[in-house]
């Protein structure tokens, strides 16, 4: 009998092509996602050295960060810098024979949303992309993480990646979530608990009853933000929920290949007694809806809480940095979270731009009107999410309430396109990062769940979604 292994150990071992004595490994990469921001130099490198893409069929390219989310975009991208990047990816994909979804393709969307939608993301795979939130795909029981541009070139050329094994962390979320509390609140609570460096050097496996009860959308939200907790990747063992989601997706295996894949996927679970270097346990039943107050994803508090006082922190460096965060955010200690007024609301991103997120928002919004002081937008994560939302009539609910309903892309998750905050504007956002300037120069971001963002848009300030009528 071999020693019990974790899910991470198993996927890693199954992909080792070569292992050096010092622990450096060459890993086989099953899937490579490519977007316009981190790929231009990688393709240029291939051109200069006269190399080809080793496996174009295991590579998929899409534009997301720079695309405009305005319906006008079908007439061409106005911003010069964005247009150059988008056109470069279109050309590189064509020259190297890689499948490419342009901004006019219904399958286009945020790279981490389209992979799962197409069945390009499958359990047990190694998946990389030149993007930190590649951890999202870990929701399928895949080993998925971001890589740098020079590694993008290496993977394009060889379909392999040099890696050292990370440590194993288990985050177990027991019990059931209360009504109104979501996957987003779970992951914000975890990051609040472990801090943004808590996962450094680890791959996190999420387990426990609350995680098992989540839909694939919720699991993706959790794995997506593993990176904000400092981890290299996050993953959740595949189960019936996963198999039901994956089945019949365009690129999922079919017929006998499906049966064989399923038999393998079912072996991909941490063994009884497998060793984890660190274990964190949370009780889902005790979790409230969460709001971030500062400029780090670990700066979180219950919606029923108050803006904390840095004077209460003994560590001087930490005190200074949290004071700076409060100054940046324009907040006073002691302010009730529910008294914080908003200027903008953004519902979208690879954290919360999937159909279930839009359904949750629509449920809160139906029959109500956006507060006149608030400018609110909803950006579907992909063309297929948009199509599905419209088939369900969600767009009508959003538009009737006064929300902007946009074309798919990263949008105001980061200020790399036309959607951005003005200086000092305060935004309730369903995205994953609240760093200074993330959503626009001097913009102020509060991270929340889709239902919380929707309610804040209507009320004009944060409200406890558990009291929503
Ligand atoms: C632009 C890209 C490299 C970046 C990332 O790696 O995460 C972006 O997606 C982000 O969310 O900040
Ligand atoms: S939606 Fe945001 S976090 Fe996700 S890939 Fe785009 S910019 Fe990065």
UniProtKB/TrEMBL annotation:
User: What are the recorded GO MF terms, alphabetically?
Assistant: 3-isopropylmalate dehydratase activity; 4 iron, 4 sulfur cluster binding; metal ion binding
An example GO biological process term is:
L-leucine biosynthetic process
Name of one Pfam family that matches: Aconitase
Which InterPro entries did the record assign? 3-IsopropMal_deHydase_lsu (IPR004430), Acnase/IPM_dHydase_lsu_aba_1/3 (IPR015931), Acoase/IPM_deHydtase_lsu_aba (IPR001030), Aconitase_4Fe-4S_BS (IPR018136), Aconitase_4Fe-4S_dom (IPR036008), IPM_dehydratase_rel_enz (IPR050067), IPMI_cat (IPR033941)
Query: Entry's SUPFAM superfamilies?
Result: Aconitase iron-sulfur domain
Question: What EC class is this?
Answer: lyase
Pathway membership of this protein? Amino-acid biosynthesis; L-leucine biosynthesis; L-leucine from 3-methyl-2-oxobutanoate: step 2/4
Q: What is its EC number?
A: 4.2.1.33
What does the cofactor section's free text say about binding?
Binds 1 [4Fe-4S] cluster per subunit.
Q: Which residues bind [4Fe-4S] cluster?
A: 350, 410, 413
Q: What keywords is this UniProt entry annotated with?
A: 4Fe-4S, Amino-acid biosynthesis, Branched-chain amino acid biosynthesis, Iron, Iron-sulfur, Leucine biosynthesis, Lyase, Metal-binding
Q: Which cofactors?
A: [4Fe-4S] cluster
Superkingdom as given in the UniProt entry: Bacteria
The protein's annotated catalytic reaction(s) are: (2R,3S)-3-isopropylmalate = (2S)-2-isopropylmalate
What is known about its subunit structure?
Answer: Heterodimer of LeuC and LeuD.
Q: Which HAMAP family does this one have?
A: LeuC_type1 (MF_01026)
What's the stated role of this polypeptide? Answer: Catalyzes the isomerization between 2-isopropylmalate and 3-isopropylmalate, via the formation of 2-isopropylmaleate.
Protein family: Belongs to the aconitase/IPM isomerase family. LeuC type 1 subfamily.
The molecule here is called 3-isopropylmalate dehydratase large subunit
Q: Which source organism? A: Rhizobium loti
Q: Which gene encodes it?
A: leuC
